[in-house]
Known about the structure:
Strand content of chain A: 25-35%
Low-confidence stretches of chain B: 546-552
Order of helices and strands of chain B: HHHHHHHHHHHHHHHHHHHHHH
Radius of gyration of chain B: 27 Å
Strand content of chain B: under 5%
Oligomer: heterodimer
Number of helices of chain B: 22
Mean pLDDT of chain A: 87
Number of strands of chain A: 10
Shape of chain B: globular
Amino acid sequence: xxxxxxxxxxxxxxxxxxxxxxxxxxxxxxxxxxxxxxxxxxxxxxxxxxxxxxxxxxxxxxxxxxxxxxxxxxxxxxxxxxxxxxxxxxxxxxxxxxxxxxxxxxxxxxxxxxxxxxxxxxxxxxxxxxxxxxxxxxxxxxxxxxxxxxxxxxxxxxxxxxxxxxxxxxxxxxxxxxxxxxxxxxxxxxxxxxxxxxxxxxxxxxxxxxxxxxxxxxxxxxxxxxxxxxxxxxxx
Amino acid sequence: xxxxxxxxxxxxxxxxxxxxxxxxxxxxxxxxxxxxxxxxxxxxxxxxxxxxxxxxxxxxxxxxxxxxxxxxxxxxxxxxxxxxxxxxxxxxxxxxxxxxxxxxxxxxxxxxxxxxxxxxxxxxxxxxxxxxxxxxxxxxxxxxxxxxxxxxxxxxxxxxxxxxxxxxxxxxxxxxxxxxxxxxxxxxxxxxxxxxxxxxxxxxxxxxxxxxxxxxxxxxxxxxxxxxxxxxxxxxxxxxxxxxxxxxxxxxxxxxxxxxxxxxxxxxxxxxxxxxxxxxxxxxxxxxxxxxxxxxxxxxxxxxxxxxxxxxxxxxxxxxxxxxxxxxxxxxxxxxxxxxxxxxxxxxxxxxxxxxxxxxxxxxxxxxxxxxxxxxxxxxxxxxxxxxxxxxxxxxxxxxxxxxxxxxxxxxxxxxxxxxxxxxxxxxxxxxxxxxxxxxxxxxxxxxxxxxxxxxxxxxxxxxxxxxxxxxxxxxxxxxxxxxxxxxxxxxxxxxxxxxxxxxxxxxxxxxxxxxxxxxxxxxxxxxxxxxxxxxxxxxxxxxxxxxxxxx
Lengths: 236, 552
């Protein structure tokens, strides 16, 4: 396990607090009651099988899903409220993009919806790092899965946030894209944002402060973990 | 090092959203070719002209006699109220499922998750959708008014104006109710229940079971030229109030429902365009969050089921049906039973309604088979013909439909109990069940992608067009066929013969017809292969290009 920060020494303001947060669809439990506190600037890896509740948790925090029971607060306000939406950036595993906007326009549009007055070329550095600059004026709706994923990541990073939620970001990415993403996630963390990444990728687990493992909607581990621990915990 | 941009605390987010939306609209309009726009206008005008012609033919031109006009004034508002209640029910159901808006999926992800005021963000799409509904309603109201003026005194403009007010008030009520239901997160059973209650009350008012239903207030607007009534004004006020509340609360909609709806509605429209009934059914269930139960109603024993795996698999699926599906099947069964009771009483066209209800119930009943068809690769790994497995699935479908039709028969008998009614109903249960299953299984199998279908690409377009038509109508014809014993029984009763004996004879015909369908299900692949071989032999030079490539 590399670079495990000892968060106990210095209590930080929680950016995310869930109390008994659960989600069910009829009698199907997608997420069992969950208590979780994520301080500012912490890097968290969310690991677990398919269907273990990782995406459900991220979508609940982003405000895309509604809680069945419990509460989720982002910087003290309920998830999904306007103030929470202003600080939570969610990068889903299924990129959803406009058919009629180019990559640059997507970034400028979403940034403007968050109060950033950006020119179309404002984010060219970001696009270059993700290998998208040459396709910046193309319509991402026609891109491959990997390029759409990169566009979605760029959108998530091109707006203000204090909590970055990323769902399975490495799936479909090529090696340079993966490396660029890891660097960008590190830089987001260094700039003070809390970062929660749902992933199966051991590479990312090694870089985080904390690993939360879910199994069948329940937390089976919360704390530092090695790759071996994670593989054992989720039975991968 | 990358750092996230900083937000301007004084930024006007709603203004930015409006600017971007205008930019996108301008570009979209610029991309529409004038020939396409003209063609769309031409098609719309053509359809409207045909509809007007057909309606004029139905309504006729003869002036009504004073007694008939009095009858219209006495009952017209109640029947118009039934239409209002149905529109209200549709609105409530839509609202409970995250409607009436079906936003672009990216709008849900990027706009509704941004700190933009949701009421402001949604007002634009809501107004655009409402404007479209209002336009359609105004056209329909005008047409109805003009048609009414040909039968009843008063100037066409007066009738048209009242028609427009009536349809607009109805749209405002239904749309407003949908917005309110979505904003208040009304549970689906509650919305459906309210809709059914309003419709039942309106129908009871129309059938004089009760004095009048509240929905008749709206109906009175449509009769203003004959009799002005202040209750109509109250209806307009209520409609506007409901719409106003809905518009004010539009931002309270559930993002979860909006996203589910935005994802499914697009697919649903596409499937409907392709007349893919099975996909429409599956997507509609997803839209309604109709999930199988984790715990079955009754747990079947595992031992002993290995001798009849298809039968056991079918019942395991049926026993996990959610309550909504069970309730729908009961309603369809009772509806079919009551419609057939109407046929027995002399209203022959109700056969079509009964057939449609049985067909829809059949689509639910053959769900285990439909799932096999949805996933053809599963059976590809099983030794033997897939037709054998499909045919074995029919038994469960017939079993489910038999129970459904039994409920329908009970409802039909309870309307006016008699020994003859019981005897005829008892005889008609099995043929009705078989007809429903035959229609449904034909629809499900015909709509499935066909690995042996290449031969059809060789037939002339006229023949292919007819085939598409027959494939669309034939399942419904089969379902209606299952109800013919009722018609036979009625004819025998009218002629002084034994109704149940006549029904029994007709039932034998239905059973034979079902046996033919079952044989087709079993041997369908062989028939297609034979047909393809025959076509290949007849047109050796017209093999599909894909085959030539595959064959080198």
